[in-house]
């Protein structure tokens, strides 16, 4: 008994304690909730309401499914006995129309179109279905379909206002204002008292006028652009009689090429002439190919034809010639400039990355065109000295041309003479080249002089060497000095 | 197990008949709706201000108001769906009560019961309100669609006068089984004891049964999950708990029941007096197996449902049938002399509740030790 009473007491005390706790906490709770509420209110105001995933209104989903095939069949079976087929069709089509109107009201245009289409499929002589469907298409911005439907509606009932209006609006929206106007005119012919027709007509008319005005303005804008300059084509009797100022153009063999950008500047379409490059893909025409690659370095500027040039262009030509003169004079200086010692030149060989004895003509060309004068000397020297390598004449073979020949002669003149290295055998090799006879004819005077000098010097030095003299004679013959 | 105590924290006497009480979500405020003596409707907003409630606002309506719900209100919003004695359904924004957000003449007679869903959970589907009326029809409304219900379950309109008597009043409606955007069910209870379960996706009657007495109140334990339990309370003190997980093709859902649940427990737990109606049932938001019932004798009972070991059993012909558990009464208190016909748990604080009774008194209750379940 005592235990029980103690238990009861304990229980009661506990109960009371719990209740007291609860009551105390309620106050805290109330305050917390006030704060929470405030926060939520603020969040509501600041943040945008998230758009829910649009869940369709239940009725729309079901209305359509209600009108599934089965229910249509049921409805068909339900037909009253004294109704004939046509009336039944009409009734069913009207049902569809009602459904479609409902969808239309709730802005569900897709389903409305489906309903109207079903109506048309059942009974296609009622213009209202087409007219309503065209309005649905307009709302979905499918204007061409809208126009089609409106036309059909007009065919079935030419006195109804709505199809005309819808057709006009559809044309207007796709920007065919003229067609819209025509449609409106047709409308006004059929329904002359229709105020809507008149107001629509006026509106479209004004639009067209405004559009035309804008276009006019744009045209004016265009003419403010600066005029394109045309070439002046004067007939010969109108051209001036005065002799054009002759500009002496000196052909200087420039060993360092005129930089491409200067040439581009000069010849950049000022003359209107375009030097067409002959594109040859086939490597049969080796000579051209090699010539091209070789000519990258040496650009012989062709004389600028000065017939039909305006004064501006003439000055440009003068400039060109000036530049050429300047560059050529540089060349002359270079020839007499200091030649480094032979040891230094030998060192060049080691520093030169790709130095290897050529085994074929193209290889020779490749290396040759990239080299500086010093390097060329070393190259020639190495080739001539090295017994493994083919002789220079054989190496170059049929690709020898006047440029290369003059270069070689220049190198010999400059370096071999300077270092007093024997060059006769080199010249002999050259002589044996098959092309030489022709090339010798086209040799420049400069080269011929140099060659002459070289040969004379050589014969002078080695007076007693008969073989040498023999060779020299032969060389002289072949080079036609 | 600690004793669960229930006590009345605040009592507020009002001068009008209270028909429904609800907590405003995410706040310590509550509303009570009812009818003034002049026949006009009234909505009052109170704030908890221990040891009192403080009146914040009063909203007057033309018609007497019967039922309400905050179910379609998103967090932060205060949209209240209200049904009145004239069959009109309105959605009011409590911040701007003069312009209803939605208004429709739902029924020709009084809206007996109303339920709303779709406000809080994001994935349970569209916002909808279901109303059950004395005219025997159950209608589902979507605030986006004006005038027309999105679904209507009514007795077939027969032209003969004889059959009119057969149309039963709908006394209770509730949403349930709304576990995704598409699925939803409506359960309706009628005054002859019919319980009908409608599937809104299939738009078809899914299950129906009949109890001995008229159904006063229905509730699923949770609206936004696959249906688990359904509690139905009836006249003459009956409480039925249906296990909705397993449906037998012929027998339907199995249930467990309690008799005399509406009576108050006198001294020593002896049940006295005549059988009284169980007016309302509400599940605890924090625990779906605990619910309270409000009885006609002014008593409130808190129940705990105990699941059976196995929720279904295989029959001899291969079909499954559900097995219902049993109910355990964890608290019983008598707080009034008049029936407790409306009740609402607070979702913010476990055990806090508000109830209204026919003696025009609003009571705020505290229940201790519910956390232990």
TrEMBL record, chain A:
Lineage: superkingdom: Eukaryota
Coiled coil: 12-46
A GO cellular component annotation in the UniProt record: protein folding chaperone complex
Keyword hit for Cell division: no
Keywords: Coiled coil, Repeat, TPR repeat
Domain (RNA-polymerase II-associated protein 3-like C-terminal): residue spans on this chain: 358-448
TPR repeat ranges, renumbered to this chain: 93-126, 127-160
Entry keyword annotation includes Membrane: no
Signal peptide as annotated in the record: none
Xref: SMART domains: TPR
Pfam families noted in UniProt: RPAP3_C (PF13877)
UniProt similarity note: Belongs to the RPAP3 family.
Name this polypeptide is given: RNA polymerase II-associated protein 3
Organism the protein comes from: Polypedilum vanderplanki (Sleeping chironomid midge)
Lineage: Eukaryota, Metazoa, Ecdysozoa, Arthropoda, Hexapoda
TrEMBL record, chain B:
Keywords, comma-separated and alphabetical: Repeat, WD repeat
Gene3D superfamilies: YVTN repeat-like/Quinoprotein amine dehydrogenase
Transmembrane segments: none
Top-rank taxon, per record: Eukaryota
Keyword Repeat set for record: yes
Official protein name in the record: WD repeat-containing protein 92
Pfam families assigned to the protein according to its UniProt record, in alphabetical order: WD40
InterPro entries the record matches: WD40/YVTN_repeat-like_dom_sf, WD40_repeat_dom_sf, WD40_rpt
Presence of keyword Repeat: yes
């Amino acid at each position: 008994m005592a235990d029980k009473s103690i238990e009861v007491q304990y229980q009661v005390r506990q109960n009371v304690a719990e209740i007291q706790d609860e009551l105390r906490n309620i106050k805290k709770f109330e305050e917390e909730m006030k704060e929470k509420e405030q926060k939520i209110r603020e969040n509501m105001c600041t943040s945008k309401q998230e758009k829910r995933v649009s869940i369709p209104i239940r009725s729309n989903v079901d209305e359509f499914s209600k009108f599934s095939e089965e229910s249509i069949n049921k409805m068909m079976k339900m037909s009253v006995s004294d109704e004939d087929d046509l009336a039944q069709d009409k009734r069913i089509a009207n049902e569809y129309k009602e459904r479609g109107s409902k969808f239309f009201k709730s802005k569900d245009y897709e389903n409305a179109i489906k309903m109207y289409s079903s109506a048309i499929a059942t009974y296609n002589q009622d213009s209202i279905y087409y007219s309503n469907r065209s309005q649905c298409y307009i709302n979905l911005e499918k204007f061409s379909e809208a126009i089609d439907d409106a036309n059909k509606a007009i065919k079935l009932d030419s006195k109804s206002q709505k199809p005309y209006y819808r057709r006009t609006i559809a044309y207007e929206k796709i920007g065919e204002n003229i067609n819209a106007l025509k449609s409106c005119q047709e409308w006004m012919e059929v329904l002359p008292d229709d105020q809507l027709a008149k107001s629509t007509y006026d509106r479209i008319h004004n639009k067209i006028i405004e559009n035309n005005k804008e276009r006019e303005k744009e045209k004016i804008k265009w003419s403010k652009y600066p005029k394109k300059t045309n070439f002046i084509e004067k007939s010969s009797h109108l051209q001036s009689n005065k002799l054009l100022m002759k500009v002496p153009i000196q052909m200087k063999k420039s060993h360092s090429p005129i930089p491409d950008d200067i040439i581009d500047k000069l010849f950049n379409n000022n003359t209107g002439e375009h030097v067409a490059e002959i594109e040859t893909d086939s490597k049969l025409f080796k000579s051209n190919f090699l010539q091209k690659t070789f000519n990258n370095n040496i650009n012989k500027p062709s004389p600028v034809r000065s017939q039909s040039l305006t004064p501006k262009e003439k000055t440009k030509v003068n400039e060109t010639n000036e530049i050429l003169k300047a560059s050529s004079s540089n060349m002359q200086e270079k020839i007499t400039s200091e030649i480094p010692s032979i040891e230094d030149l030998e060192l060049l060989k080691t520093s030169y990355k790709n130095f290897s004895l050529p085994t074929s003509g193209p290889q020779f060309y490749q290396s040759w065109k990239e080299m500086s004068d010093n390097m060329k000397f070393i190259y020639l020297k190495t080739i001539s000295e090295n017994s493994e390598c083919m002789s220079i004449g054989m190496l170059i073979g049929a690709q020898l041309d006047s440029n290369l020949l003059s270069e070689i002669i220049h190198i010999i003149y400059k370096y071999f003479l300077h270092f007093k290295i024997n060059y006769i055998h080199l010249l002999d090799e050259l002589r044996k080249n098959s092309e030489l006879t022709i090339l010798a004819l086209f040799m420049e005077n400069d080269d011929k002089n140099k060659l002459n000098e070289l040969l004379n010097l050589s014969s002078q030095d080695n007076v007693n060497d008969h073989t040498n003299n023999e060779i020299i004679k032969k060389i002289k013959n072949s080079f036609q000095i | 197990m600690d004793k669960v105590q229930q006590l009345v924290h605040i009592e507020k006497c009002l001068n009008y008949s209270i028909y429904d009480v609800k907590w405003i979500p995410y706040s310590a405020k509550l509303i009570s709706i009812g009818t003034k003596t002049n026949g006009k409707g009234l909505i009052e907003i109170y704030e908890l201000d221990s040891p009192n409630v403080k009146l914040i606002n009063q909203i007057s309506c033309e018609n007497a108001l019967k039922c309400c719900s905050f179910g379609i209100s998103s967090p932060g919003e205060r949209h209240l769906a209200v049904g009145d004695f004239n069959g009109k359904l309105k959605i009011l924004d409590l911040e701007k009560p003069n312009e209803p957000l939605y208004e429709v003449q739902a029924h020709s007679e009084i809206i007996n019961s109303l339920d709303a869903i779709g406000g809080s959970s994001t994935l349970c589907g569209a916002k909808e309100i279901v109303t059950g009326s004395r005219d025997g029809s159950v209608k589902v409304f979507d605030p986006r669609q004006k005038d027309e219900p999105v679904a209507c379950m009514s007795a077939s309109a027969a032209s003969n006068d004889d059959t009119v008597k057969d149309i039963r009043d709908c006394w209770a409606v509730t949403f349930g089984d709304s576990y995704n955007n598409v699925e939803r069910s409506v359960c309706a209870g009628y005054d002859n004891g019919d319980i009908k379960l409608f599937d809104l996706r299939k738009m078809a009657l899914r299950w129906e049964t009949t109890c001995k007495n008229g159904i006063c109140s229905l509730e699923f334990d949770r609206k936004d999950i696959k249906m688990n339990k359904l509690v139905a309370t009836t006249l003459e003190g009956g409480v039925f708990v249906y296990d909705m997980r397993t449906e037998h093709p012929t027998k339907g859902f199995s249930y467990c029941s309690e008799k005399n649940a509406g009576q108050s427990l006198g001294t020593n737990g002896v049940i006295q007096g005549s059988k009284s109606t169980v007016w309302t049932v509400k599940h605890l938001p924090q625990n779906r197996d605990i619910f309270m019932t409000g009885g006609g004798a002014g008593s409130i009972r808190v129940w705990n449902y105990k699941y059976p070991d196995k929720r279904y059993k295989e029959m001899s012909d291969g079909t499954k049938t559900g097995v219902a558990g049993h109910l355990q009464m964890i608290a019983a208190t008598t707080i009034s002399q008049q029936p407790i016909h409306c009740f609402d748990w607070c979702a913010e604080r476990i055990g806090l509740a508000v109830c209204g009774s026919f003696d025009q008194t609003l009571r705020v209750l505290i229940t201790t030790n519910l956390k232990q379940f």
